[in-house]
Amino acid sequence: MPACCMRVIITSFPLKKVLPVHISPNDHKQYRYLTLANELKVLLVHDADAPRSAAALSVQIGHFDDPDDRQGMAHFLEHMLFLGTEKYPRIGEFQTFINRSGGSNNAWTGTENTTFFFEVSPHAFEEGLDRFGQFFTAPLFNEEAVDKERQAVDSEYKLKLNDDVRRLYQVHKETINPSHPFTKFSVGDLTTLDDRNNTSIRDDLLHFYQTHYSANRMGLVLLGSQSLDKLEAYAHDFFSHINNTGLAKPDIPVPLVTEKEAKQFIQIEPIKDIRKLTLSFTMPSVDAYYQQKPLSYIAHMLGNEGTGSLMSVLKSRELINTLSAGGGVNGSNFREFTISLNLTLKGLEHTDDIVKSVFQYIALIQQQGMEEWRYEEKKSVLELAFRYQEKSRPLDTVSYLVMNLLHYAPDDVIYGDYMMAGYNEPLIRDLLAYLRPENMRLVLAAQGQHYDQTAQWYATPYSVTPFTDKQLADWTNITHDPEHLLSEKNPYLCERLTPHELAPESELPPQLIQDLPGFRLWYKQEHDFRVPKGVIYVAIDSPHAVNSPRNIVKTRLCVEMLLEAINEKAYPAEIAGMSYNLYAHQGGVTLQLSGFSEKQPLLMKLILECFASRTFDEKRFNNIKAQMLRNWRNAAEDKPISQLFNELTGLLQPNNPPYPVLIEALESIDVDELPVFVESMFAELHIDTFVYGNWLKEDTLQLAEILKDAFRVTDQLYGESQRPLVQLNKSGTLNYEINGKHADSAILMYYQSREISPRKIAVYTLANHLMSTTFFHELRTKQQLGYMVGTANLPLNRHPGLILYIQSPVAGPLLLSEAIDDFTNAFSLVLLELNEEQWQASKQGLIAQISEPDTNLRSRAQRFWVSIGNKDETFSQRKKVIEALKNLNRADMVRFIVEIVKPRTANRLVMHYQGQAHQNLESLDIGQPIESITEFQQNAR
Ligand SMILES: [Zn+2]
């Protein structure tokens, strides 16, 4: 056929079909759904206010598709696509571009999907898409990059060797149907990705890519302030060349679990001291019912936490600490439905009774719990959430929409997650019928059980035992448990859905509307997002709460006990779209409420009642104490780098002790000490409150009266608690070592600014921004020192801070510190080598990040609250930092690197961890060792 005819054919047929999309009345974005000629599904989102433009592409290929002898291939390919394409061959080019453009990017490989996403400043979007599009049309798989990157995959695997999530997941894989692709090893390592006699990994990689990466199995979402037409042009320009093989995604021909794998009790040894019991039921995929969400109904009933619920009853019998229902793995031909329980020590002895109780509750649902109003309650909550859906970050938006694009009908791409299209009792009953003993796998992860097998890849000890006839009989022939109750109608569901009229002063920043001794009230009616929601912060400062590690621990105990007391009563409020949190910090504790505002006063009253009736039940106390001890002791199994971060803040902030100090204090605390402690704490309070959102001033003042009553605030003279910080000043290099059982070594270098001026904040933030990509590229990509490599901007108690860190399976702290020193020594040269355009682009990228508008009411509330805490009472700090950034020139930054960061002159704190694999290496001996923490903290203020 002559070429001219081809052209005629193409232009005379539509290249795309455009379909409508159902959206929320509160959603002012515009959408366009279309399919390109190569069958690529595309969703375009125009958001006039989007601070950044974002793209996500997902392909229906995942580790299920790995060749049996090349496990980890899909994951490896995900890594490789970032590392050079025909038009942009240089390794690291994409990363540099993203960083320079004030953006971020990531990717993940799942069971049946691989997803890539990035966001950048709007002006850089087209350039970004040009690079991104190349991933799917012209990757190079450069030899050198292939070799380096499989090392990176290998260290990613090794990094997680002691991660219980992975270790338990591997047992899961080994105990289901061995011919199901779920059994494959998803990460990959040097043995699965090696070069072999007849094939190189690169050849196999190419083959895998060419076979599977096909446009008809992809979805693309583009979001930005660009017009829909512009976005559509981008989709055509950069993605219409993706090859279409026309091959559909293959079906999985075998079930996840057969007769053989059901009815089994699986015991697994975790590394951390956890006690988790999971009842797991396998059923066919329910994806087709996403409009009706029958499993949500079941999860809603089983996961209820109110009075008489399964969780409440098991808790009152001291068998469990938490319960959650409705989790489990999901795939194109299967769905697991799980009920997971965290057991107490007593619960560990009574697992069969717990299982029995679950089946009793399931029977109760079958007999009395099938009622349409329950479905309607859940539906009204979701409708409300949809109607007042708030924006999330562009990057988050595109990454969930791209999954919806591949799984939902075009009209439901936005609405699908929220829709409950109708109560279908027969369908719910059908699914509920899968929740029976003969279809169950019971998994117990707890230390010291019986094991006779070892899992591949992660060496997890485990065992598999069939249920006994007695167990099956006990769980099948059950009677009603009179303590079990179904939930009642929810009093917290909101009725008034339109936000209040705006008062004239609502445009102003937050105002201090009450300033009394010991009590300050900030208020702002929200004028921008116009949703019927509110956020309330109540910071309760008490010097007594934080003046010793022992009191700090008592404060945390009280917080946990209170949270537990509130939980059961406040559960319906959570269901109705409200949330609350209570947390301890360096000054005392803070209570936070968020969500729909109409019934917030009701929730506040409930919480204050719990405060007032504080009871310190000994059994509950012992249970909470045991849980806290266990969590803190488990932290010793955390990754070395996490441990270093924890010890760093513990060392520098005396009111924020590290785990070992907390553990020591907690061990000797008795329940009898708490009432006296709370009284002393209440005797010297300072309260700062911020009420924000759909709140009227008179209602706010009323709420303030309730708060003052509850906390007995009467002209007290207490100011806020001090929040001391150890200042490094002219310390030179300080050195602190921690020890542990991990194989990897880790190092962290911390630089602190004494001043807290906007200019210093600008310098430290920009230094981190400038260093991050080069640091990652040099130490991870080029030198392959480890998988966790980076820089961070860590302000502590308002003092700017800069951190460089590495966790390494291959090198000890000495070598790591030398590598970092080499980097910092050379970095001023890197700065000098940037051309003017690159320098300006970097700065602009950071400014764009900082000046990004708040996406929703919660994030704006959070920003105001941080300003209040930082004494930025004109709410202008951010503007000042941006001004300071604009004025920084390259010489300023070179001076900062040479004078402050360079090892020869630096005042810095070096934290390190010598891993078990590096015990024979020479240890790191630099600077002044910190031997006594108490002494070190004496110059804190
Ligand atoms: Zn990875």
TrEMBL record:
<keyword id="KW-0378">Hydrolase</keyword>
<dbReference type="GO" id="GO:0046872">
    <property type="term" value="F:metal ion binding"/>
</dbReference>
<feature type="domain" description="Coenzyme PQQ synthesis protein F-like C-terminal lobe">
    <location>
        <begin position="766"/>
        <end position="865"/>
    </location>
</feature>
<dbReference type="InterPro" id="IPR054734">
    <property type="entry name" value="PqqF-like_C_4"/>
</dbReference>
<dbReference type="Pfam" id="PF16187">
    <property type="entry name" value="Peptidase_M16_M"/>
</dbReference>
<dbReference type="InterPro" id="IPR011249">
    <property type="entry name" value="Metalloenz_LuxS/M16"/>
</dbReference>
<feature type="domain" description="Peptidase M16 middle/third">
    <location>
        <begin position="386"/>
        <end position="660"/>
    </location>
</feature>
<dbReference type="Pfam" id="PF05193">
    <property type="entry name" value="Peptidase_M16_C"/>
</dbReference>
<dbReference type="Pfam" id="PF22456">
    <property type="entry name" value="PqqF-like_C_4"/>
</dbReference>
<feature type="domain" description="Peptidase M16 C-terminal">
    <location>
        <begin position="202"/>
        <end position="381"/>
    </location>
</feature>
<dbReference type="InterPro" id="IPR001431">
    <property type="entry name" value="Pept_M16_Zn_BS"/>
</dbReference>
<keyword id="KW-0862">Zinc</keyword>
<comment type="function">
    <text>Endopeptidase that degrades small peptides of less than 7 kDa, such as glucagon and insulin.</text>
</comment>
<protein>
    <recommendedName>
        <fullName>Protease 3</fullName>
        <ecNumber>3.4.24.55</ecNumber>
    </recommendedName>
</protein>
<dbReference type="GO" id="GO:0005737">
    <property type="term" value="C:cytoplasm"/>
</dbReference>
<feature type="domain" description="Peptidase M16 N-terminal">
    <location>
        <begin position="41"/>
        <end position="178"/>
    </location>
</feature>
<dbReference type="InterPro" id="IPR032632">
    <property type="entry name" value="Peptidase_M16_M"/>
</dbReference>
<dbReference type="InterPro" id="IPR007863">
    <property type="entry name" value="Peptidase_M16_C"/>
</dbReference>
<dbReference type="GO" id="GO:0004222">
    <property type="term" value="F:metalloendopeptidase activity"/>
</dbReference>
<dbReference type="GO" id="GO:0006508">
    <property type="term" value="P:proteolysis"/>
</dbReference>
<dbReference type="InterPro" id="IPR050626">
    <property type="entry name" value="Peptidase_M16"/>
</dbReference>
<keyword id="KW-0482">Metalloprotease</keyword>
<comment type="similarity">
    <text>Belongs to the peptidase M16 family.</text>
</comment>
<dbReference type="Pfam" id="PF00675">
    <property type="entry name" value="Peptidase_M16"/>
</dbReference>
<dbReference type="InterPro" id="IPR011765">
    <property type="entry name" value="Pept_M16_N"/>
</dbReference>
<keyword id="KW-0645">Protease</keyword>
<keyword id="KW-0479">Metal-binding</keyword>
